[in-house]
Each structure stands twice: as C-alpha cells, then as structure tokens.
Amino acid sequence: MTTAPSACPSASASAAVSSGARTLADPDTPFAVVDVHRVRRNVARLRARADRLGVVLRPHVKTAKSLDAAALLHDGSPGPVTVSTLAEAEAFAAAGYRDLTYAVGIEPHKVPRVVALVRRGVTLRVLLDSTEQATFVAAAAREAGVALPAQIEIDCDGHRGGLRPDAPGLPGIGRILHDAGCLDGVLTHAGESYHCHTAEEQRAAARNERDAAVAAAERLRAAGLPVPTVSVGSTPTAHAADDLTGVTELRAGNYVFFDLVMAGLGVCELDDLALSVVVTVIGHRPEYGWIVTDGGWMAMSRDRGTSAQPQDQGYGLVTDLDGTLIPDVVMTAASQEHGTLTARNGAVLPELPIGTRLRVLPNHACATAAQHQGYQVVDGAHGPAASAPVITAYWPRVTGW
C-alpha cells in the first residue's frame, strides 16, 4: 500500500491561519519562515546562469518540497524538475508536472509506482548504476508495455553511488536499457563540491563534473548507443560552471533557499538565505552565559554542516524577528526542544526578555525544512517592518517517501 504524501499544515500553523494571524508575532513557535523575495532572487540568479551556459535548468525540489515554491522556478509553469522521493513525484505529477527525474537509485519494490506514473503520461526518469538494476527496469518495461526512461549514474568524485566514466560495465548496462527502449542518458552529481572552499576549487569541481558526464556519454555513443541527456549539477558547481559544452541540463536544489553551509563556501551571502526558524526565548542561565529558546534540534535538525568549515556556525546564526543579524550570537547547543544561544568573539549577550521572538538561520536548509510541515511566507521586498513582518501565505510541504 502506498502512503499518500501529506501536504497539510501543521496543527499550530492551521490554528494560526484560522485565528487570523497576520505577522510573525502570531503563530506558536517554533515554525519555519520563507522570505519569498529572496527565493525569487535566488531563482532568477541561477536561471540567468543556465541561460548563459545554454543548458536546460532542471531544479531539484528536494529542499523546499513545496508546490508553491516550485511555481516560482519556471514562471508559474510546471517545467522540468528533479525529485528525491516518489512521494514528491506523485505530488508534482498530480499538480500537472510531466517532466521529472527521480535522482535516487531505483529498487524493485518502487518500480510499480514508477510504472503507474508513466501510464498517466508522466515522463519519470529513474536512476541506476548496475547491471542488476538495468535488468529489472528493462524487464518491468517489457512486462508493462511502456518505456521506463533510465539514466546511468556516473561517479565524478567518489561521493556516493555511480560508475566511473571508464567503468568496464558501462556500455553493457547501456545496451540492456537501450534494447528495452529505456536508455535516456547519464547523470552525475559533484557531491564533493560541498567541501570546496574557494571559487577556483568550485570551478575545478564543475569542470570535473562536466568532463566525467561527457566522457561517459561519449563511451556509450562509441558503442552505438543514443545518449539524449547529459545531466550534471550541485548547488556549488551550478554557480561556478563557466563552460558546459556537451551537457544538456543543469540540476541544483539548495539554491532556492541557500543556507549557512553555502554561505560558508562563498556560493551566496547571508542576505540570500531565504529560510529561517522563528523561536522564542524561554529562559536565561547567566551563570553559563546562555539564553534558552524553545527551538531545539527538532526545529533546526541535528545537521552541523559548518563544523568542518573555517567558521563553525553552531546550529545557526540568530537574527531579530525582522531578519536583522544579531552580531556574534549563535545557537551553539540544542536538545530536542531547547536551543542554547551564546555569544562569541568577546561579545556580550543582548538583553532578550522571556517571550522575545528571534529567527535562526540554518546550517542545512534541506534538513531544517524537513523538520516542518510547511512555511509561513513573508516578503522582504517590503523592507524592514514597523512591527513584526506580515505573513502573506502558507506553503505546505510534501512529506514521506
């Protein structure tokens, strides 16, 4: 039995909406906030880059997992997207999206859900990197009487799965897929780019990502196999690539919201971070230099992605409710429902009475967003608010797998 994806607001968000909440001072904390102005700006930046590079942009919806956010990716039209779960694929297909890539390795139990979407007229590409996977995808396509487009994952940097471009088994996998009418192309992801701390390192990662994918495609073509799609992308390399000759499409997902990891790599500025979490001060421990909030790792996630960077940002940087950074105040510790704020670099903690609302900028937008069922939306284009920022919308998230 397949569990339908949830797209319902959390209980607190539903209560906030029904009670007529209009500002970030109203919903119970903690809750996630998205600045739609920053989202639009981030989306426009990468779209313009893809246009300059002459490739199709296939955004990854795994970060926001939101149909409302996705509507901004292609000017309101259901354009090509990448998904990380079949729940996302099903939700986006139901909303009219017909050009999807499921960028996680396929396994047999999930194939019937893929077949069901293909029979509804959805192009849903699956990903694989073994003869075993190619064989059961080809068999399923023949049994169902439909083409199941498949891309061969290429390992460009040893990050996760995939075949090296020179792997002996690559042409054989391509032949199995082609004979069943399923070979769609190759796909790679420069996961190690998340550890590239300079612009030149990121450009080198982008070149390596491109070269690996193109080399794999050329090997398949040399074996007489068609390779219509050559897909590359990660948020750092998508913003660093300067030549994508031989590539047909570019993928990225984190860029819609950005986060402290991306800011630490220099891919974006703090002012580009579109996601934050509103928390409330619930206590003080002056003997330890702590301010305690009601937002712990259940609100922020346990991701500590900046710990390996030159500047460790703890569990997140702290702003006031309007989004203005409070210098040198960091969420340095978190338990399930408690966050601990401390000062660094000799700073003095500000006076923040119990009941004060703050926003915390996350290390990893994907992980923090996953802690919430949806987003309260504000529009930073209106400038600093005279009071708490006005909530303009609520965007539910797709959940589940």
From TrEMBL:
GO terms for molecular function: alanine racemase activity. Keywords: Isomerase, Lyase. Its EC number is 5.1.1.1. The keyword Hydrolase does not apply. The keyword Lyase applies. Pfam families: Ala_racemase_N, D-ser_dehydrat. Residues 274-379 form the D-serine dehydratase-like domain. It is an enzyme of class 5 (isomerase). PANTHER family: D-SERINE DEHYDRATASE, ZGC:162816-RELATED. Belongs to the DSD1 family. This is Alanine racemase. The lineage of its organism: Bacteria, Bacillati, Actinomycetota, Actinomycetes, Kitasatosporales.
